[in-house]
Amino acid sequence: MPAEAYVPSVLTLRDALARLCAPGVAEAYSPLTGEPLLVVDLDTSCPARSNLAAARESLAALPCPSVALARGAGSEAARALLDRFDVVIADAEELAPLVAAVRRSPFACLALVQLLRHGEGLSIHEGLIAESLVYSTLQAGPEFGAWLASRTGKRRGPPPTEPAVLVERCGKRLEITLNRPEKHNAFSAEMRDALCEALEIAVADPSLTDIALRGERPTFCSGGDLDEFGSLPDPATAHVIRSTRNPARLLAACAERVHAELHGACLGAGIELPAFAKRIAAWPDTSFRLPEVAMGLVPGAGGTVSLPRRIGRQRTAWLALSGLPIDARTALRWGLVDEVRE
Q: Are 148 and 42 in the same domain?
């Protein structure tokens, strides 16, 4: 079946338990050999004696995303399985963007949920290494290659005339401002390096008790600079760079002293990085989106580490798989931000 024609079956809980406990479940639910998505209606009945432990283990190892449709409290069996699904949705309408994602980028969808599952037991440092390795693997994959080839007519603008990051110290306060407003503060290699330099100051000097992270208008950060995607010589070199110059690692090291002020469309790195901060304030016009899966990638600026610590693995997976934005009020309700300023 062509990927664009794929329509998933919604299994009853009874059927799902039977399939999850079958020896060939990994072959049956894989983008290579079977279904690229498992969808289960948890509001259906199941046998009184079910091997829930085996089903939980199977969900944790499944080589595709798993989605639970859960409208109500559900049965005892449903509640026992709920936390092992990758995404939980309340109605069938929420399924459509997830199906679109697996049609377009099944390998990236698989890699994303595996990374998020794996990351639950890792430290921040270990999680960042795992994220970089998965990201690097996907950079050599067919989905990212197809996305890159589709970007015709890439044009670089004129060279910058101002620093990509502004840094100002005033007593115990350090202000760090992303400064590429003409590019909506797209996260470039120059900005990454300058942000690392600023954060190294913050990490090295504990007397800096108030570290502010903000961006020049009109947008806090529109995510990675697309003009630079695919510009490194190979994925291995990219992993070494992320292991050497990683603002996420430095932000995490001084997070207790950092507050971020967000506005406009915060895409990719525009929320992945500030999510490490102790406190995040957003203006009402702020929205948040993780676009990487549609490119055949996973979040690569630390988002698979920072966001689950704020909103949990399942909501992070929904954001990344759906690619849909959420507004500031939703972000506040989820705990992605701590304050919406009026």
A: no
The CATH number given to whatever domain includes residue 179 is 3.90.226.10
Burial of residue 323, with CB atoms counted within 10 A of its CB: 0-12 exposed, 13-18 middle, 19 or more buried: buried
Spatial contact of 22 and 30, defined as CB atoms under 8 Å apart? no
Tokens 């799902």 identify what position?
16
CA 211-244-295 angle, to 5 degrees, is 90
| Residues ≥6 apart with Cβ < 8 Å to 282 | 261, 262, 263, 328, 331, 332, 337, 339, 340, 341
Report the percent of the chain where pLDDT is more than 90.
Answer: 83
Q: In terms of residue numbers, what domain contains 304?
A: 125-152+161-340
Tell me if 110 is assigned to some domain: no
Residue 189 CA to residue 228 CA, distance in Å, equals: 8
Which residues neighbour 171 within 8 Å (Cβ) at sequence distance 6 or greater?
Answer: none
The candidate with the shortest Cα–Cα distance to 104, out of 292, 235, 288, 269, is 292
Residue 204 and residue 137 share a domain? yes
**Intra-chain end-to-end CA distance of the chain, in Å:** 50
Residue type (1 letter), 68 = A
- Give the position of tokens 């800096």: 208
Examine the pLDDT at 218 and tell me if it is beyond 90.
yes
Say yes or no: 202 and 306 in one domain.
Answer: yes
pTM above 0.85, yes or no: yes
In a domain, 115, yes or no: no
Element (H, E) at 67: strand 66-69
Mean pLDDT on 124-153: 93
| Range list of H helices, 151-246 | 189-204, 235-244
**How many independent structural domains does the chain possess?**
2
Distances (CA, A) of 57 to 33, 50, 87, 136: 20, 13, 16, 27
HEC states along 93-160? HHHHHHHHHHHHCHHHHHHHHHHHHHHCCCCHHHHHHHHHHHHHHHHCCHHHHHHHHHCCCCCCCCCC
